[in-house]
Write a structure and sequence with these properties.
Layout: E1 5-14, E2 17-26, E3 32-36, E4 42-44, E5 46-48, E6 51-55, E7 65-69, E8 75-80, E9 92-93, E10 99-101, E11 109-110
Length: 116
């Protein structure tokens, strides 16, 4: 899996924002997932058995981010919500170094197993 969160489905009422519906997968490290709307508002996703879903409680901006939170409330990471699906910003590799997502680059991040 590319990092702790993978968006599988995303729809929005506007090209660069608006209200959104998002679904995807999360790694075992993710205990909570929050959508930062980019305007001071947030929406908490429902996370269960390695998958998540959320319907924004209002409009998001083009700078909206998904914030993954681990056990004990520590932050794991942030990823832009509204980005091109045909462009992968990073590559992810398994422990042997084989690229499992994205294009091989100088420094791939570790892929995370999805075991649920």
């Amino acid at each position: 899996m590319p990092g702790p969160v993978q968006v599988v489905s995303l729809s929005s009422t506007e090209v660069d924002g608006g209200e959104v519906i998002v679904a995807g997968r999360v790694s075992d490290r993710v205990q909570r997932l929050v959508l930062d709307h980019g305007n001071g508002r947030t929406t908490t996703a429902r996370v269960e058995r390695g998958v998540f879903g959320l319907i924004s409680g209002g409009s998001v901006t083009k700078n909206a981010e998904l914030v993954s939170i681990g056990e004990g409330g520590g932050g794991i990471g942030r990823r832009r919500l509204l980005r091109s699906f045909d462009r992968v910003d990073r590559c992810y590799a398994d422990p042997s170094g084989e690229v499992v997502y994205g294009e091989a680059g100088s420094q791939c991040l570790p892929a995370e197993p999805w075991t649920r």
